[in-house]
Amino acid sequence: MNSFDVIVVGGGPAGLLAAGRAAERGGKVLLLEKMRHPGRKLLITGKGRCNITNDDPIGEFITFIHPNGRFLRNAFSRFFSREILELLHHHGVAATLERGGRYFTTTNKSLDVLQGLLRWVNELSIEIRCGMRVDMLLIGDHAIRGVRARGEEFMASRVILATGGNSYPATGSNGEGYELARKAGHSIEKIRPSLVPLETEGDIAQRLQGLNLKNVQAVVWVNGRKVGEAFGEMLFTHFGLSGPIILTLSRIVVDELHRNNNVEISVDLKPALDEQKLDNRLIRDLNEHGKKKISNLFRYWLPATMVPVFIDLLNLDPEKVCHQVSSLERKQIRNLLKNLRFRITGHRSFKEAIITAGGVSTNEISSKTMESKLVKGLFFAGEIIDLDADTGGYNLQIAWSTGWLAGDSCLKDENK
Length: 416
What we know:
Elements: E1 6-9, H1 13-24, E2 29-33, E3 51-54, H2 58-61, E4 65-66, H3 73-78, H4 81-90, E5 95-98, E6 102-105, H5 110-123, E7 127-130, E8 134-140, E9 143-149, E10 152-155, E11 159-161, H6 176-183, E12 188-194, E13 198-200, H7 204-207, E14 212-222, E15 225-236, E16 240-242, H8 244-258, E17 263-268, H9 275-288, H10 294-301, H11 306-314, H12 327-338, E18 340-347, E19 355-360, E20 378-380, E21 388-389, H13 394-409
Parallel strand pairs: 1-2, 1-11, 2-7, 11-20
Antiparallel strand pairs: 3-6, 4-21, 5-6, 8-9, 9-10, 12-19, 13-16, 13-18, 14-15, 14-17, 15-16, 17-18
């Protein structure tokens, strides 16, 4: 008999947490996953290391979540970073705190997290069926009745949609859950890639391909107006810019590009020095090494890969000796070190986006239970909801917390 207390659609982090918690509450739980194995996307998180969560307190944590982090206050108060770390620890997964408050697996293997979660759900006797694509929600009288997958109907008065977003579609996140929600009457906020690399005009980034910069400041300019900034690490690629601070800023950039605005990113290579201090250093170095070629002195200021690029951008003679550098040329050097500009022409596709922005409107979901306000017994968890966050473990915590809350809430008396 295909009858269950709870059906969870999607076997990613949110789905596994939802299924596990619902089973802990005594429910007969079916988890349907359309891929051959659950948790495929989890395996590639944190570049295969799995950035499990962040140790920021809730008040600070929600400031990194868009567009409305406050929606998650209740979910976080019920199940947060300490709880997921304890759950994983109980099932053999150790975590290590690294810079920026980020928790990673001690072994640096995402597989350990997936295996720990699978041990948990298997102990709870959850029925997991893979290769099962759900193509319809069964709804009657504004209440969920079950789902249809591969021509079979599975009945339950509680269904949790945890189908993920659109990012990394090869892992199964191809946006099908949005259509299921839309057909159930829900509004879908515009879907677009987030935490995604950016494409730039010209060949400068291409010439610097593979160069990783640390402790730099990147600023987003829209139609000449500063709209965002981030400090940290970035990477040059064959198509443009990537790395943590670029990915963080990409949410702003993607939205502005879609509005057809002119978007630039400036990079301050010497953020620890203001204009005057940097100028003083340039004067000192030029005087101390007056007989050296300017191209050799640049190696004191920049990674070797950047030197010929800077020489070209400044239109300098690389053979010029330092004591011949004019005050105007020194000013141009200083300006370029503080303001290396790139015009942004586009962004990479969902195939390279870490997360999806947009999704099921939070206005139509109860923040206390994750239940739909439109369809009784229908719950949402994870990336399908219109919530996304910066890099640093924030996005996975959204999945853990909303999944746990949906699984916990769906079997409470008020939901029966």
